[in-house]
Model the fold of this input.
Amino acid sequence: MKKIKDQIRETQKKINSIDFDAHWYRRVFHTFGATFLLYYMLPDVDWINLLKILIPLVVIVFAISLEFLRLSGKISSEHFFGLRFYEKNRIGSYLFFGVAVLILLVFFPQQIAIPCILCACIADPVMGEVRLRLGKTWVYIVGFLICSFFFIVTWYRADLWILFLITFVGAAGAVVGEVKKFWWLDDDFMIQILPAVLLLLLYLVLNYYGVDILPEKVIYPGRMPW
Amino acid sequence: MVKKSKPHDRVIRAELLFTPLLILLPFIVGVALIYDWLTRDFFTNQLELTSELIHGIIIIIGNLMFDIPFLNSLKEAIEKK
Done:
């Protein structure tokens, strides 16, 4: 027993003394966001549908409260690992990321939401690495190609002209949302919401003229095990 | 132990404790999507429906691309100490 306690103490000591670069942590945090697609796999049952709205809301309210406390100086920014220097005096990008995902999950059809979430979760960190290694010009090219891929695999069952239109508008919107920087509005929000809003407008306009462009759903709700 | 450590240390420790969750959860979701595709589409011969399979693979590969350098950087940091 004493040996185990000593080992635990030793491990804790080691963990406490580690100081590692937040760069890869931020990247992994982004890709982790793809986990939210689990939302669409939850069974379509009344009480689960209620939880689908309540739980993300509670999480976002909690995150907003944390940010409020941090910005008002009641919690030190040092407690927020991975925060960028310019985020010390403004809302953290993790909150923008979470709010955008919540908006997409709750208010947008999954055919629009899923590729936009994947753009933020996977294309964004890839574009970040490309910017670091190859320069800004390549960010546009690689970013556009990766985002296009996400729209193609989600919309591949739509008519060809719709597939082209959606892929171009969505990928261009995501790249513009990522590269256009605002101090007050984070790119983690823009890369998701800008293409989603553009596509929703396109969907509504075409729907008004009697053209339904939405293909089949990508992810279907699971069944209850009982 | 916690009282003695600096705030930054405590935060880093928390991040390390979150690592298994950050790494494993996306894999579980990816595998769940692939499993759903197998049971819903593949075994019912609806082979033209591959969205869930592709999205599952995207999630797994997308995470793997960044998990490996993250774990390597973590390993390096641990070995340095």
About this structure: Confidence is low (pLDDT under 50) at residues 1-5 of chain B.
